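Suppose you are handed a protein chain with no further information: no name, no annotation, nothing but its sequence. What can you learn? This example shows the usual starting point.
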Amino acid sequence: MDKVTILPYDRIYQNFIDPKYLHDGHDEYYYRDQQVKKPEGGWRHLRSDEIERLVLNNNSASNWDDIWVTDQFDTAMVRNNHFFGMVRIGRVTRHVLQYHDLRVPVGITDSSIISCDIGDDVAVHDVHYMANCIIGDRCILFNIQEISTTDHSKFGNGTIKEGEPEDVRVWLEVMNEIGSRKIMPFDGMTTADAYLWAKYTDDTKLQERLKEITQASVDIHRGYYGTIGEGCVIKNCWILKDAKVGPHCYIKGASKLKNVTINSSEEEPSQIGEGVILVNGVTGYGCRIFYSVVATRFVLGDNCNLKYGARLIHSVLGDNSTISCCEVLNNIIFPSHEQHHNNSFLISACVMGQSNMAAGATIGSNHNSRATDGEIVASRGFWPGLCSSVKHSSRFASFTLLSKADYPNELDIRLPFCLVSNNAAKDELHLMPAYWWMYNMYALARNTSKYQSRDKRKRKIQNIEFETLAPDTVEEIIEGRKLLEVWVAKAYLRSQGEDPDQYEYYNLRACGKNLLDNEPYTVEKLEVLGEKVEKGRRKVVIDKALKAYHAYGDMIVYYAVKTCLNYLESHPGVTMKAIVEHMRGKRLRKWINLGGQTMPEEYADQLRADIRDGVLNTWDDIHHRYDELWKDYQREKLRHAYFSLMFLYKDDTDVMTKEMWQENLDQALRIQQYICDQVYESRKKDYDNEIRSATFRNEAEKLAVVGRIDDVSFVKQTRQQTTEFLTLVQKYKE
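A reasonable first move is to predict its three-dimensional structure. Written in structure tokens, the prediction is:
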């Protein structure tokens, strides 16, 4: 048990590092000296007259010979301090530093300082205990209880120092509470890194190599000092311990920052506000963390927001995400996640970004088995409705919308862009595939531009696919069409008194496709039931299967034609004929979403192999590989788009004729006009809703508040995009 002990007086500053960890003739200041920027002109000892004035100003030192200053050192600006050990102080002149409405003089007053380096033009006032820290130029440190560093500080990295036991290593137990997918956090970790590490747990050699790479990314030697970058303002805080704070960070009223790296820069400054507790983690650049947030064992991406009492534990949060007023535990969350309503709860999940958690949503209800909770995997665009409750273990295709309900059983939703409804009266689960495309085009079409506009990152390390229709979502659409073909065929055979289980899979698909393409009236009369969708025996009813099937087809055509045209536009020397010839003999690849960056699965497999085999030996090497794959993305996306289009004709065809291309251009024109019309119509519902007009005195007040639909910026933008697309298609038709 820890207890208070009595030590010799000089131990307050000596033996910062246990002598047994000093090697190669190094002293305890060796790594400190490597971290410090030496001032122009260097440091010097104090003159005797300066020491005399400092003593008169009520300053004391364990040894005045250990105090080093520059030639610009005004003793009048240093009052009521206690110095211990070697303290080096940069330029101190009679100037004032201002940040917002706070103005404080340069200098050091009413503080206790132990073995620190203080840069030029720094204001340190009422810092009651500051030990083993390096303070950058032009910083303001005002009213801080403790700011200190231990000799074994890791600054949030999941590494250990020389002589430390393995059990002190910080792990993040992501995606489940068992700890079987645990990963080591590190400064610079992206959601792609986290997912690569946590997903492929069966690849034991990969797991060993990633641990080795992470441990090797930091120096195991003890003695590194905590750093406060230049231009930082830290005021009215309680404890900063083992903290590495980047330049131009603003920290006010924080309760406790321990074993953390706070990345920040002049271009992307981070801010931390009142009552915040951050322990064992790393934040990205440009993050804003305010109002009683608690985060432990975490990694935040760039441009993230945590606020209003949010709790983030054992989780990785991707770039451009916001969490407030809720609890988030044991997750990997890809970029562009929104969760800012009270009482929402997300646990043991992998949510693949562009997601929105409504108020009261409980994703990962506890105690639905005798074992530890399972996992939830939700592809891009996951949106559970108000007060939805979902059980472990469940899986959701891209852009799944859950209507408000307490879902009693585990779910496996494989139909993308789907509305899921719990019909309690009939004790049935209802799925409406392609719901977004058919009934809420405004929200769907706006999705891409919305997330692009919210991407405020200056340094885009994590590559992110923002397009709604991309290889990952289109592959789900293709699989969704196959499911609908099979389920429609089985519904038809049951209506004819036949046993569908007697038919082979491909025969069922052929039967269903024929019905969906050629016998719409027959399909409309069928009760189409989903299979292996929910754990339980109740019906899973597929609503509007016919309309959804053809909507899926339109989505594939639109994605494929648009991708091909964009490629042709950006590669003037390439023709569609050349693309067709290039694709001959190739096949559709399977794609995955790796932390927000989509790529062919075989490329991810090669990435893993190169890590295992030592081809990639650092996280920088791995990130460089991500970037190389991203450079090839448009070419690979073209290939995917081409074969997705070919799928609509025949699964195994690879040759597009001129007539087929012309037909698809015409289809794309029709679809673009449909999108434009539906954006207008789905938005117009709000304007035509009489109940929504009840709060206004008259039409004039309504127009003053909500405006005219024709003035809605996204409606105007969609019309402009439609005109441009029509022009582009016409160009290639001719």
